[in-house]
Amino acid sequence: MNMAMRTTYHHGNLGPALIAAARDLLDASGPGAVSLREAARRVGVSATATYRHFIDKDHLLAAVAAEGYREFTERLRAAGDSADGFSSLGVAYIEFAMAHPGLFRLMFGPLLRERERYPDLAAAADGAFAVLLEGAQRFVGRRNEDVESVAYAAWSFAHGLARLVLDGVISRERALKVCNAFLFGQAG
Q1: How far apart are CA 162 and CA 167, in angstroms?
Q2: What is the CATH number of the domain that holds 159?
Q3: How far from the centroid of its chain's Cα atoms is residue 106's Cα?
Q4: φ, ψ at 56 (rounded to 5°)
Q5: Which long-range contacts (CB under 8 A, 24 or more apart) does 147-154 make?
Q6: What is the pTM of this model?
């Protein structure tokens, strides 16, 4: 019996494997390096097999960003449960950006504006913001302040600091010091 060798193989967990391959490409060279063809090659399947899970590169990147938001949410949730309170959310925000710069940029990039096209990404991003809202509520307590505005201010502040660090404008240490000193806590 003469059987032809298969050049590809069946992959039982292809969606998550493609996401992992795309994350590796993203970490190594940024979103421009991510393609369905290259992710398929890394996983060992044909390029056409990717279309069973992702209709195009942007859908793959949206899935990667959604996964990033879920990890980000868990980091924020763990930080929010710490004794340091609201300031720990800002620190966790900056630390996540430093640990995953390519992913962080992707998460807050243009795909996020297309909420209708990528509902999983929108839901994951909303989950992260919900943790910031919870932290803002604890921070505000019973004071008569707009909790959502406090959450947006904290988000903007931490995001700005994270971008300044990623862009090499300020050091990580400076960003964490500013984060702890101002919006999130000790300075009045």
Answers
A1: 9
A2: 1.10.357.10
A3: 7
A4: -165, 175
A5: 153/183, 154/86, 154/89, 154/90, 154/183, 154/184
A6: 0.86
